[in-house]
## 1
Amino acid sequence: MYLCAQFSKDMQNDNKTIIEINNVSKFFGDKTALDHINLSIRKGEFVTILGPSGCGKTTLLRLIAGFQTASEGNICISGKEITQTPPHRRPVNTVFQKYALFPHLNVYDNIAFGLKLKKMPKQDMTRKVKAALKMVGMTDYEYRDVDSLSGGQQQRVAIARAIVNEPEVLLLDEPLAALDLKMRKDMQMELKEMHKRLGITFVYVTHDQEEALTLSDTIVVMSEGKIQQIGTPTDIYNEPINAFVADFIGESNILNGTMVKDKLVRFCGQEFECVDEGFGENAPVDVVIRPEDLYIFPVSDRAQLRGVVQSCIFKGVHYEMAVMCADYEIIVQDYHAFEVGSEVGLLVKPFDIHIMKKERTCNVFEGKVKDATHVEFLGCEFECAPIPSEKIPENGQPVRIEVDFDKVILQDDAEDGMLTGEVKFILYKGNHYHLTVLSDWDENVFVDTNDVWDDSDRVGITIRPQDIRVIV
Amino acid sequence: MQTYLWVLLLLLYAPIAIIIIYSFTESKVLGNWTGFSLKLYGSLLNTNAHHSLMNACINTVAIAVIAATVSTLLGSIAAIGIFNLKARNRKAMGFVNTIPILNGDIITGISLFLLFVSLGITQGFTTVVLAHITFCTPYVVLSVLPRLKQMNPNLYEAALDLGATPMQALWKVIIPEIRPGMISGFILALTISIDDFAVTVFTIGNQGLETLSTYIYADARKGGLTPELRPLSAIIFIVILVTLIVLNLRTDKKKQLQSQKTK
Amino acid sequence: MNKLQLFFASRKSWTLPYLIFSVIFVIIPLLLIVVYAFTDDGGHLTLDNFRKFFDHPEAMNTFIYSIGIAILTTIGCILLGYPAAWILSRSKSSYSKTIIMLFILPMWVNILVRTLATVALFDFFQLPLGEGALIFGMIYNFIPFMIYPIYNTLQKMDSSYIEAAQDLGANSYQVFWKVVFPLSMPGIVSGIMMVFMPTISTFAIAELLTMNNIKLFGTTIQENINNSLWNYGAALSLIMLFLIAATSLFSSDEKSETEKGGGLW
């Protein structure tokens, strides 16, 4: 409540914020769907919440709509706290993923549903419904059965049904997901147009990064119940904040690197000039280079990297080539094709090299020492290298356990591992894969491997005794 | 809210409870308690004493098993055929299939009765079985068809593609896919066959054949219920109750195991 | 491949055995009812059987009375069954499955035994047998057939419809009457089919529940057949068939409006 009061005060200063989400978490049983979300949305903005399936984006939208209530934190719309308000008293309307048009009502009655509940006079109602239909380009469809409409038409009716109530915020839950590509492109343009004409706030949920880039004023990238980055499409694309965002938005080469000093980074065995600073000296970093930012040409002195073309695919406008430079596979897009097997040079401009601080350099777990050769973490007991007796903490105090990414062994047969998990996220780093494996203990284990795994593979996880570092 | 359900259930089970309670007393009339006794159970199990009741029981089961088996075969084959028909024929066949369900027992019974007398067939065991097959098969078809609809349409072709003959494809691919539908169809057929009264009455003839239903009906018309029917009903009810509980627990356990595995 | 193999390779032809069976045991018998209804003992065409029905107030009255009882039973089943189905559809699925099981379980006890037990129940509480007992017995026998299809439609109903209604400003009362209830119509219609039709055509149950005081139309038909008045019995059956056809036409119309399923099977 305090936060909201605070927020109302802010409202007077800045009359633009319409939705304020403060420290909101949502738990389903012991699963965390949303983890301390803070987000404020300005009036009239087109905000897209973008993320892979299961990242919590739909849950966030449903909390705003009121179909679910937050476990923690609060949500304000137009300065009013609405965390516990039932959906029918909120100034928002939703366009559902599968439209949810009432099959027992025709187009007119579907659109008039909300107005009838408000007991609006018949004439006004008819006028408004007609206007809404016109807005979505469905004039003369009033008395059609909703089941007789195509997917795109149903979508338009669903939008009309929501906007006819003149909500302050329109929530859209992957509204285009069920349409085919061509239709989707058309509808994207129309939605953008509609947003301009209506002037209301749109909160749009999607997993389609291209859709997000096309439509939004602001993109909120989410993963695993957390907001990863908030920014304009250009910001998000050009300055991804971490490897996840870089990988999720557009295509990228993501490589391990070392920041030698300010404005000098080392990767692929070469040193490169860049524009980033403030990482310290010899700091491990992730380096992101977009495929279209690399110049490819026959080998010459200008080449920063030399490599051999491994594959070349025509993608409609450009060619996409995989170039093997020393040990690293680098993806390059260019209008010119280079033959497979030909030797090429690559060059990248300093400001096209994006440096991101590594979130972690090895796995860190909290554990307990069982005896001189056994520790317990991730809900399992592991054998470890002998711990000097003077270093064993008394009465089972927690210790820090470190395991390097490349020392975690994954097994095909989940039964073979000491514990099991599921592959959640795969990042290709040029010469190896960086996997995020969610163990059954609900803690992430990060793994570097040369083996190819698929999303949601069940794997066994094994760590050899000598690879477990116990830090007291 | 939940109490409403329990009150409703209590009402539903009250008559059954009464039957079970009064199966433990000797009284000839239901509702008259003359002290606890297991005599009715004893005389029920003594087949000689109640030859006709046991006979009726055996007939009922025999008719149900034969009718359910035949309708499961006939209905499953028909379902595969119907599924492969063109839309218009499928609709027509679907309509024919629902006729016995819509008609209600009495119309089915009378129409079959007229058929048998017109053909001059003496009614008896065979006619009852035929009649039961008539009203059981539609339910089998209706249980199997949804399984076929859910089936990936390419499965059959995939089997052929991998070198199976049409017959092998049927046995190794289609039958396993529709088996749950066949099983539930069989159980459904068994149940409605055992419970049937109206159709049986019209097709059983007058050769002295009796099923449980006709036996009870004749009994009731005479003004009373053979006391041994109480323990019999109680036993049938308890057996079914236990079977269902065991089946449910087993599937629950299986599900639990599966969910544990996937977790 | 010989001709026979070719024939069976096409799975369409698998319909054939059942088609032949249905023609012999479903379609021809129904036609026989029509034939018998329009002929006399000697096999001559006549309308006498129908004339007899319309001239005899007794049969006519039984017919109308039976429809009345069937309507009351159906309404009773909806009023008692809908809330049960609604509560069940809101409960956890493992729990509601068990309860549904419990509702269906009494069906395995022979219908006549169940009816006699109802009689015993009325005796036990010293309630008079008669119309009240008849309707109670009918509802008792048929309510599971109402609960199950309604529960099915309610359970399958996409929760986004409810959410959409809330989103558009409906409170829980309005959500129910404007969305949930209309969308559960297919279930109600299947329930009506499953309850109304068998109720009209039952016989024996009514006699047992009313000490032979009340006769329903099913009994009238059966008595005529038993007394070898086959032609008249067939005519009465045909009248009932018309009623059944009319009801099912009405309900299939209702159903095709929202072909979202429901149904008992």
## 2
Amino acid sequence: MNQQQNFWEFVVLQSDKLISQTLTHIGLTFASLLLAILVGVPLGILIANKKKMAGTVLGMAGILQTIPSVALLGFMIPVFGIGTVPAVAVLFLYALLPIIRNTYTGITGVNEAVRDAARGMGMTPKQILFQVEIPLALPVMLAGIRTATVINVGVATLAAYIAGGGLGEFIFGGIALNNTNMILAGAIPAALLAILLDFLLGKVQHIIPARIKSVSLLLSVVLLLSTLFYFKPVGERKLLAGFEPEFMGRTDGYLGLKSEYKLNIPSVVISDAVMYEAAYEKKLDVIGGYSTDGRLKAYNLKVLQDDKVIFPPYHAAPLVRQEVLVKHPELQNALNLLAGVIDDSTMTELNYQADYLKQTPEQVAKNFLQSKKLWREPQIGTGPTIRIGCKIFGEQYILTEMYRMLIQGHTQLKVETKTGLGGTKICFDALTNNQIDLYPEYTGTGLLVILQPAQPDIDAIMASSDKVFSYVQNQFEKKYKLTWLKPIGFNNTYALMMRREQAKALQISSISDLKNYLEKE
Amino acid sequence: MIVVDNLSKIYNEVVAVEEVSFTVKEGQNLVLLGTSGCGKTTTLRMINRLVEPSAGQIYINGKSILNQPAEILRRSMGYVLQNNGLFPHYTVAENIGIVPQLLGWDKKRIKTRTIELLDKLQLDAGKYLHSYPHELSGGQQQRVGLARALAADPPILLMDEPFGALDPITRLNIRQEFLYLNELKRKTIILVTHDVEEAFALGDKICLMDKGQIVQNGTPAELLFHPAQEFVRNFLHPQALLLKMKAIKFKDIWNKLDDFTDLPAANYPVIKTEQSLWDAIELLQQKKADKIVVTPETGNQKKIISSASILQALSPEN
């Protein structure tokens, strides 16, 4: 992580991926555009002739346009699943409005005297449409297509959320990994593509009327051909994997799978939000998720054993300011009540209750503590206030609630929770700047995100959870005057997972099993 | 021959045209004259069925036009609009070729005909054939519009304010050409205008309309000298003097003219009996003379009239 890669080096290194992503991006844009033209232009012509319908149709297309693109993607998954089809469907819906509206405006804007002359000379309605109205409306219609194209190049980046591919893979991967080169490698080609297409279509738009016929023809041929990019034949495959963008770019993720396990599995990039469900619905066979995610249980997935240990340990433990512990020794005792109490499957179960069964974190925390006989009626606090922070996801909320209840039940201290502090960076900065007193952190995160030691140091300790913990504990004491208390027990690390019944049927229980299965003829 | 029989058009209970009837003989020019909103354009547009009549019938050569497909009907009639309605994305040649193409003429025939028409309308074919309408002046555009209407040599020509969008001088020039264009001599023409002078210059017959009805249908002279209603007199009043001078020919007042006996010394301008009083006045001004000699159609007896007597001839008792 320390070595700063030059942008061009990155581009050269990833040129294969870059080219294929760009082609996919073009394919996505044009496939949806073609569909939108095929539907939008006739619809625009229809409402230009039946003005009563115009309000309704334009209104509906307008409403579609206002739905946030990520939400629209979400709506598409139950209908179309993941991958190409829902991505094209969403882009199609976005492209629809400018095309319908400009077709309508273009056709209704044709000079009435010209239309009158056409009728008066004995042209049929069809002849008037094709020889007069469409050619004269074409510049306006092309402007609509131009707008739709630029919109689609932008929105197509979101296809990466649902395994649709495209330059979004780099962009979202780069954001997740805080890798500027990767973000730029996606964003710059996307922007250039938008500018280039806008420029070319702008040229077409101002072409003199006489050539408009041949240009339109050329345009449709180009459109069709580029659409074909996207429907390149998919080879036969045994299993399909889906990984979120961050996983794709990490050495303790996809890159590690390739280098350490020599695992070669066809994979798509997909958002964490839909990945588990996609695995459950057999759209994907292997996914890279988090080992304590509640959806593991909800969708009956099995974690594959990381037998070569490429995923670093991410044991959760409270990270507390030293100063507070010294001042209030009773705090440490209260927090340690949870040490070693929650194992992987228990945490998965708790996350399942909160994320999937939609119980409140407070309820989940209280039920659990009661079952472990750790819950006590909160005392009327007389001491100072302890401020607990947490990152913005379910597991952290549950842990924070537990700590609040333990402190209130077992000490005289008052508690204030500051939940939803975004990611690691925000929580950590809040802690070092005395905005909060503690938050639950993961050892692997402490090591790789905060400390960022040199690679040999990481390699030396990675395989052992205990070594990682003591390394992190020592370094944090020294550098930041922060204390890692005893781990809670579970390890929320990256993991490969499969549907339980499929793993059983194929006799796969570790990542090496998976690799062997894939290589078997 | 076009027969319009009790034609009406009602839009949402508003009567635009009410029981209009007239006949246009083959080769005749009929002008529908009136102010805007009088129903003259609606009447014209019913004849090529751009407007479907609410009631009444239209016959062309005895056959009702309402029984044939509107598109086929329209291809047999030329149609000229005020704003020319040229297709902006078609060249001059393509514009003129529209109807012939609809009728399935071959390319060579269309081209020959196009060039022929451009020549007749005094447009340089070599220069303008492949120009676009926006590259032409208003007058040239209107000529192309006329050429387009004439392209397939239709027996009938419908013209809706054909010179209305032109400036007065261009209008006068094109109207003159129009009067002397051979192509038009054989055509049955129905022309809509609000311009009284234009109506009198171009119409064999004039139908004066008001509020959707025909007020008077007759020759220019009938309207001038025998107005059927006060409305007609008032409508023509501002230009009455000029119109009368143009309408009255010397043959009409032949008997009231003084005999002319040759006086060798006098060198008077000479005019024919079928020419109008207006022609005489223009000639007198041009020659700076005060008397003019009129030569008869038959016989040898010439007559003479002074400029003062010409004005007297316009007095009410005449």
